[in-house]
Amino acid sequence: MLSYAPVRSRGGSVGLVLAAIGAAGTARAQAVAPYDPPPVAPYPPPYAPYPPPYAPYPVPYYQAVAPLPVFPVQIDNGEPGSAIQLFVDGRQIACSAGCSLSLRRGSYNLAVTDVDGNQSRQNLNLVMPSRAVVTPANHAVRITGLVLLGAAAAGAMVGLFGMLRADAISSSADCTLNGNCQDPAPWIHASEIGFAAAFAFGITGFMLWHANRTAGVEVTPLAEP
Description:
This protein is α+β, with helices and mostly antiparallel strands. 40% of the residues lie in helices and 23% in strands.
């Protein structure tokens, strides 16, 4: 009679192995300490608020500046029949017969018209109580100065032409090779006369024109009453 030994099935052995592995993993998991994350530094505080606006000026600028002093002014007409106008803050003040007024320290423009209708201008610089005698520019003398300046230019051209002509005569081929030289003396004299006239007319014309290109304003301290 045959007898059979008990044999465990393969499926039961695998189950036991898996159960053992699970028990070992559970025990290992229980043995490991729980995860403790490292401390994190707190966020920095928010940016500080903007500084307060600049403190206002203690006194507005236009109030902090001292006002300009005011001086008495006497304006007299130096040429009878001429018309004088004074410009103050965009206003025209007629002073043909002379005027007395009070003005702040500063510069003021004067327009003077002579009896022939020719106008000239000049500035009145006021720094103290003053008396100003105003005369128009001499239109005829100014024109004479311009004419003399034109004559000076013509004299300079004559002098330059004479100098160039004398140089051309002295350096000509006929003179240097054959010795047949013309006399350059007349041209040299003409050049000298032209340059001398240009110098004299130029200086005189400029002085006449410059002295009469603007009106005349003679300012003297105003005498105390």
